[in-house]
Amino acid sequence: MLSNAAKPLRAYTLAKRHVAECIHAAQQALQASDRGEAAERCQTLLVNLAEDRFNLAVVGQFKRGKSSLMNAIVGREVLPTGLRPWCVSPSGARHDE
Question: Do 47 and 78 reside in the same domain of the chain?
Answer without folding.
Answer: no
